[in-house]
Amino acid sequence: MSDGVGLISLLFFALPGSSAVFTQEPTDLVVVAGQPVTLPCSIPGYHGMVLWLRDGMALGVNRDLSGYPRYDIVGDHSKGEYHLLIQRTEIQDDAFFECQAIQAAIRSRPAHLTVLVPPDDPVIVGAPVVSLRAGDYLNLTCHADNAKPAASIIWIHNGLVLSGAIYSKTLLRDGKRESTASTLYLSPSNIESGQQITCRASNKAAPNGKDASVTIDIQHLPIVNLTVEPQPVLEGNLVKFHCATKANPPVIYYRWAKGGNVIPDVSGDTYEVLVDHSFFTEPVSCEVTNTLGSTNISRNVDVYFGPRMGAEPQSLQVDLGSDAVFKCAWTGNPSLTIVWMKRGSGVVLSNKSTLTLKAVKQEDAGKYVCRAVVPRVGAGEREVSLTVNGPPTISSTQTQQVLYGEKGQIKCFIRSTPPPDRIAWSWKETVLESGTSGRYTVETVSTEEGVISTLTMSNIVPADFQTIYNCTAWNSFGSDTEIIRLKEQGEEEGEDVKRQPARSENNRGSDPVHCS
Ligand SMILES: *[C@@H]1O[C@H](CO)[C@@H](O)[C@H](O)[C@H]1NC(C)=O
Ligand SMILES: *[C@@H]1O[C@H](CO)[C@@H](O)[C@H](O)[C@H]1NC(C)=O
Ligand SMILES: *[C@@H]1O[C@H](CO)[C@@H](O)[C@H](O)[C@H]1NC(C)=O
Ligand SMILES: *[C@@H]1O[C@H](CO)[C@@H](O)[C@H](O)[C@H]1NC(C)=O
Ligand SMILES: *[C@@H]1O[C@H](CO)[C@@H](O)[C@H](O)[C@H]1NC(C)=O
After folding, report:
1. Among 73, 226, 297, 324, which is least packed by CB within 10 angstroms?
2. Where does the protein end up (predicted)?
3. What is this structure's pTM?
4. Mean pLDDT, all residues of the chain
């Protein structure tokens, strides 16, 4: 404090013999800004000049405080009362006050008037709604300005006071009031979207505090559940895909794709479709977008279907002794069973998609069936043929019947892959491959099953029964021969012997063709 009293002392002139004394002097007081306050000063019997000083500055003489509209001198003048009434205290009233009786040369003790100022309403930066991204820390600042003494700030969440805020204050230019700021740093695990956080500023002038609140808005990418119903489902039925989403900010749009290709014309949270087998392998995805980005979820559908053929199995032509491998690429759901069988035989050769025949024999030639079953859903089958390259095989009845005097025919049935290069009939000294020689004619006909060579005798004579007929066929792999005898029709047939399959011990279900 500057000693203003000394300055006023210059005006001082003493009245000798004066015995004036203060019966009331101002005392230290505390007042909340805006409230009235009265500083007492009584000097009974004194009739001289009375002066009030504030921080050493004279406010005015006697009752004339015209420069200070909020100040009045009150009390009974005749009793020497010069109380200073401050109507509505303000911060500049926060000062030392002194009452002086000039002619009596006395002054009161300096009394300190403390003016308390409540903080302005607190302000949370960013209020009323503070948005942050999920997982980010919340960083809130609240300030409560222009308070005396500086406001203290607490943060309240769910009725509890939070700790750990960082507090700072700055003194205003008036040297008396202070502004306070508090920064709260909160872990994302401690807060949920929609909750409120309150900043409460208080000081002695506002003991109950003043509140400001902020609502926390936690934003996140869409959280998506993609449901598929019903499942499992039989091919051809209706399936509903539903993309249940939680998003903040809200969803802008949905996009659907199947197997990576966007499905046009579907833009809502639901997609309904009649499913086929492709839904089993091509996932359906739902992509949900808000301003923060997109979430994309995929689902396969458990579609029951099948069996369906991938690559068609191929028929094979292989050389005698090599391996034959057939493949049947069935797919189905639920898992299918496959069997490979030779047509006409009930023997299961394989229960895998691949059938391997090792070192094939000529009897292995024929048709093979690959059959697939998806239990309770469906079945399918494909047929392929195996052709075995090898020497010809001839089957024929070794004894053929004819009638005297009539036209007679003997036939030779040749199975041969590749087809025979040459077929020859020989008997006695004659060899005939084709055409006519005397009574004899050779004709060769190709059928699907093989080649039939027929030796025709225009009319049968007894000598024809005495000889043997040699039918021989050749191809690049070798030859086969069949010796045939003639027998008069009507004779006992006890000698008839059917030619047996060469390797009847094999169980590949060979299917020999007999010919007569
Ligand atoms: C909180 O925000 C303030 C102002 O934006 C910044 O200065 C401060 O570094 C932030 N605090 C943290 C811990 O991120
Ligand atoms: C997703 O499903 C789970 C479990 O069924 C559930 O708890 C969650 O709330 C769902 N989310 C949405 C976005 O529907
Ligand atoms: C979702 O992601 C998958 C895989 O990246 C993509 O193939 C598909 O097209 C996406 N879905 C949408 C609707 O964009
Ligand atoms: C397939 O064949 C193997 C071996 O012959 C056998 O053990 C298996 O049980 C068969 N599986 C089916 C489904 O028939
Ligand atoms: C049948 O004819 C062929 C070819 O002419 C000959 O090689 C073979 O020895 C003959 N067979 C008999 C039993 O005569």
Report:
1. 297
2. Cell membrane
3. 0.65
4. 89
